[in-house]
Design goal:
Ribosomal Protein S5, domain 2; 33% helix; polyribonucleotide nucleotidyltransferase; ExoRNase_PH_dom2; ExoRNase_PH_dom1
Length: 750
């Protein structure tokens, strides 16, 4: 109204400057009188989440800011008006950490944010998996979600705030989305469930769980790492987290009703005519059904058989319908195949490979594959095969984290880390070999979370575990957990107990109109095709005691808690069976050392002997590493850490170190005694002298050379090899260096 008033008053204004002042004052008054809408969500622990909108990024389709404590995250969403692809939802989530939000400057050469870090990529995947299931099936417009950190207090983590802000931004926008959702982080301390724990509380928590849920207590996404938490405690935490999420959903809906935009209409997708669809079904239904009923098929033979049917059916359809759209035909074919596959699971009571719903594939494992490796194992489950290796190195090889990740996670470096590789030949494909992709990074991080609780914190070496997928037909990340456990035990790492993992699947009869599940089947140890055509990929890992990691990717709009609890219980039973099979291969860490295992020890060196060990500029340690491969790092004034790649190298290094530290017995010098010193080197600050053969050079400073003040030893005409009379005043109590003086022996001529 103020702007309209200003425009109307334009014709009456006699002075342009007066008109400008009027408009400026009107706009200022309008902004002051308008408050950005916000809602507050109180939690049971007294903390409050605030979600607001309308203040920033008003040109985006949707924008929301979520704040908890002094941490605030802004999320914007923008979607193109027209679909760019068919049969796929092109959703991109970009979560970026900003050093400025934490009052820091990036430490790289350019002093600016560069490519996304591992933590940023993993958080982007976390947000993506929470949002993607709620987009309509036929919505194919390119959509981008950008999460921008405004402020980070180092107490409250911004990742869960980003999920809630993204939920609010999508709900307030005109983008079709069946939300909102709510997300909370759940901790478990002293048998109590903590909602949205602080960074310090997480360090003492046995559980770090993120729950994303929608209305009616339907779970959309789960991700957790835990310190072998009991199954019943985990189930309790999921229930509490889902309940707390409902408060966030209610408040976002309240905000949506007040300032939300009307949702845009989704274009009705083009479909084949009913005649063409029936012809397609009649040509393929029986043949595809027979392929899925043939339990002798493996991954390759089943794919080849389906490919032959596809090619034959497409040729016949094109002969009858020359102007048919091949994209629509391909999409219709895939839908029918998926429907046949899912119906057979309900009708036959068996899966496409002949297994029962809760039956595992055949499992085999081997350890100690190659002699030069510190630890190695091959784990085979059906047609999924992983090769794991363990490398032990010094603490200097620990993985250092960037400053902002340290601030948000509280972890400065990692003494154990897992690297996961998925080459294209694992699925009989050709592709790019190069930097790790987002998918590989996510699978590796999940396997690392599963194994970290069983690795000792005080282990004297840095552990690098690699997992290379050689064959893949489902659940390669959980196979990495099993193979990684075997490789760690083969390397003699004293793990607390073996861990194993399994992937659970789900097939439902889902009523889209009522958003209700009419019937379902939970599948244990799913195949790749069951993951692709199913409704859930629920990965669960743990040891005999409890759960160490889980990750649930749900492909329909939410699952009831009943199904989640049933899947957890079934997975726990399967995990126990897998552990019993692994124990037949190796049941405890190897105790007899391998010849190539590294060794380390602590070396105590007297303060005045440090210079003998180090040498000028550390030349002795550099020479030791070049000759033997043994590295020596200083811990404190008198303690050094010695790391050798093998016992043989350590024995060789011991001889060299003893020669450096052991010299002819030095004569005992009397405090206040006068001795003859020989100059061995002249420096700007003084001269280096020795009092007896084999003695490490000691510095005679310029201030102690003469009673007169001199800037350089050359002023006195001193030369290398010249002998001087010096007085000995013992050793410095801090540095251990000799204290010598020549000027005290000179007669004061004044």
């Amino acid at each position: 109204m103020y702007l309209r008033y200003c425009l109307y008053s334009k014709y009456a204004a006699k002075n342009v400057s007066k008109l400008r002042r009027t408009i400026s004052n009107s706009i200022r008054h309008y902004c002051q009188t308008q408050n950005s809408p916000e809602v507050n969500v109180p939690f049971s622990n007294g903390r409050t989440l605030t979600v607001s909108t309308g203040e920033y990024a008003r040109l985006a389709d949707g924008c929301a800011v979520a704040s908890l404590g002094d941490t605030s995250v802004m999320v914007t969403v923008v979607s193109k008006p027209k679909a760019t692809v068919q049969g796929f939802m092109p959703l991109v989530v970009d979560y970026r950490q900003k050093s400025a939000a934490a009052g820091r400057i990036p430490t790289n050469f350019f002093r600016r944010e560069l490519g996304p870090s591992e933590r940023e990529i993993l958080t982007s995947r976390l947000i993506d998996r929470s949002l993607r299931p709620l987009f309509p099936d036929n919505f194919n417009c390119e959509t981008q979600v950008i999460c921008n950190m405004l402020a980070v207090d180092g107490v409250n983590n911004p990742d869960v705030l980003a999920i809630n802000a993204a939920s609010a931004a999508l709900s307030l926008s005109d983008i079709p989305w069946n939300g909102p959702i709510g997300a909370v982080r759940v901790g478990f301390i002293d048998n109590e469930v903590i909602i949205n724990p602080t960074r310090r509380e997480l360090q003492s928590s046995s559980l770090n769980l993120v729950v994303s849920a929608m209305k009616r207590n339907l779970v959309v996404m789960l991700e957790a790492n835990a310190n072998a938490i009991y199954l019943q405690d985990l189930q309790k935490a999921i229930k509490v987290g889902t309940k707390e999420s409902q408060n966030i959903i209610n408040q976002i809906e309240k905000l949506q009703k007040s300032v939300g935009k009307q949702k845009r209409l989704v274009d009705t997708p083009k479909e084949l005519s009913e005649e063409t669809t029936e012809g397609l079904r009649s040509l393929m239904e029986m043949r595809v059904t027979e392929i899925f009923r043939n339990y002798t098929h493996d991954k390759l033979s089943r794919d080849n058989a389906l490919s032959e049917v596809r090619n034959d059916v497409f040729e016949k359809i094109k002969a009858s319908f020359e102007e048919i759209d091949m994209n629509l035909l391909n999409e219709a074919y895939n839908k029918i195949v998926k429907q046949i596959f899912r119906n057979l699971i309900f009708q036959e009571g068996k899966r496409c490979d002949g297994r029962d719903y809760n039956e595992l594939r055949n499992i085999s494992c081997k350890v100690n594959m190659y002699k030069p490796l510190h630890g190695s194992a091959v784990f085979q489950r059906g047609q999924t095969q992983v090769f794991c290796t363990v490398t032990l190195d010094s603490h200097d090889s620990a993985l250092k984290l960037d400053p902002l990740s340290v601030l948000t996670s509280g972890v400065k470096e990692k003494n154990f880390f897992l690297h996961y590789e998925f080459p294209p030949f694992a699925t009989k494909e050709t592709g790019r070999i190069g930097p790790i992709g987002r998918r590989e990074m996510g699978h590796g991080a999940l396997a690392e979370k599963a194994l970290t609780p069983i690795v000792p914190n005080d282990f004297p070496f840095t552990i690098r575990l690699t997992s290379e997928v050689l064959e893949s037909n489902g659940s390669s990340s959980m196979a990495s957990v099993c193979g990684g456990t075997l490789a760690l035990m083969d390397a003699g790492v004293p793990i607390s107990s073996p861990a194993a993992g399994v992937a659970m699947g789900l097939v439902t009869k889902y009523d889209k109109e009522n958003s209700n599940i009419e019937d379902y089947r939970i599948l244990t140890d799913i195949l790749g095709i069951e993951d692709y055509m199913g409704d859930m990929d629920f990965k669960i890992a743990g040891n005999k005691k409890g759960i160490t990691a889980l990750q649930a990717d749900i492909k329909i709009p939410g699952l009831p808690l009943k199904i989640i609890m049933e899947a957890l219980q079934t997975a726990a039973d399967a995990k126990t069976h897998i552990l019993s099979i692994m124990n037949h291969c190796i049941d405890k860490p190897r105790e007899v050392k391998k010849e190539n295992w590294p060794v380390c020890k602590k070396l105590e060196v007297e303060v005045h002997k440090r210079s003998r060990l180090l040498g000028l500029g550390g030349v002795n340690l550099k020479k030791l590493f070049a000759e033997t491969g043994v590295s020596v790092s200083q811990i404190d004034d008198t303690t050094f850490d010695v790391f050798a790649p093998s016992q043989r190298a350590m024995d060789e290094a011991d001889e060299i170190i003893q020669k450096l530290l052991t010299t002819e017995k030095a004569p005992e010098l009397e405090f206040g005694g006068v001795y003859k010193a020989t100059i061995v080197e002249i420096r700007d600050i003084g001269v280096l002298v020795t009092l007896y053969p084999g003695m490490p050079p000691a510095l005679l400073h310029n201030s102690q050379l003469d009673q007169r003040k001199i800037a350089h030893p050359s002023a006195l005409g001193l030369e290398v090899g010249q002998e001087l009379q010096v007085k000995y005043f013992g050793r410095d109590p801090v540095s251990g260096l000799m204290r010598l003086s020549r000027k005290v022996l000179q007669v004061n001529l004044r």
